[in-house]
Specification:
By secondary structure, the chain is an alpha+beta fold. The protein is built from four helices and twelve strands, in the order αβββββαβαββββββα. The chain has a single domain, classed as Electron Transport, Fmn-binding Protein, Chain A (Pnp Oxidase, Chain A, Roll), CATH 2.30.110.10. A hairpin with a 5-residue loop joins β2 and β3. The chain is globular, with a radius of gyration of 17 Å. The structure holds flavin mononucleotide. Flavin mononucleotide binds next to β3 and β5. The site of flavin mononucleotide (FMN) has 15 residues, from β3 and β5.
Length: about 170
């Protein structure tokens, strides 16, 4: 890296861009739930309806998502930090004690999330050390009126003030 400095500086600066914490879920062998946490979920296209996330190519969960050919993006709520830590942990049964239902495509929809988007994998594009996993939207739903879980400067938070949410509901801002 030249003007952008080393990897540490890259992480520090990019950490100042807040992201929504999203659990990407699918099922593996015998319907066992699989998943990982990402901060890279985004919408891609309205027509056709496409979304995407970026997965590190060293991820152990990525091959399972590719093999299933489908995934559900679950927007975690502000009160789900512990769930995020569990789903991002290595070497653990990430879904132990986690309550979920099955989406129309067969992916886990986690209880208590803000919203979810159910997809079939449309394309996988290798970019640098990550794979961009593009999904064609099959179903989507606003699941609750909770505030979202955000990640900013290397930490979790709920940065929406009650005032701004009230204004949102009252004035439609
Ligand atoms: C807030 C947050 C955002 C993350 N964003 C990504 C991401 O966009 N892409 C990614 O590959 N891993 C991301 N991770 C790391 C993964 O959640 C997980 O730790 C990693 O995939 C290792 O597990 P795996 O080998 O099963 O994939 C993120 C972790 C956290 C806590």
């Amino acid at each position: 890296m030249s003007r952008s400095g080393d990897g540490r500086r890259f992480r520090d600066v990019l950490g100042h861009f807040p992201t929504s914490v999203v659990a990407i879920t699918t099922t593996g062998t015998e319907g066992h739930p699989e998943g990982m946490v990402v901060g890279s979920f985004t919408s891609v296209s309205l027509d056709p309806p496409l979304v995407s996330f970026l997965a590190d190519r060293s991820s152990g969960t990525l091959p399972k998502i590719k093999a299933a050919g489908r995934y559900c993006a679950n927007a975690l709520a502000a009160d789900q930090e512990n769930l995020s830590r569990r789903l991002a942990a290595r070497g653990a049964d990430r879904f132990a004690g986690v309550t979920w239902e099955t989406s129309p495509s067969g992916n886990p929809v986690l209880e208590g999330v803000v919203a979810w988007v159910d997809c079939a994998i449309e394309d996988v594009v290798t970019i640098g050390d990550h794979d961009l996993v593009v999904g064609r939207v099959k179903d989507l739903h606003i699941a609750s009126a909770k505030t979202p879980l955000l990640f900013f400067k290397g930490d979790y938070g709920d940065y929406f003030s009650t005032t701004s949410l009230l204004l949102d509901q009252l004035v439609g801002w």
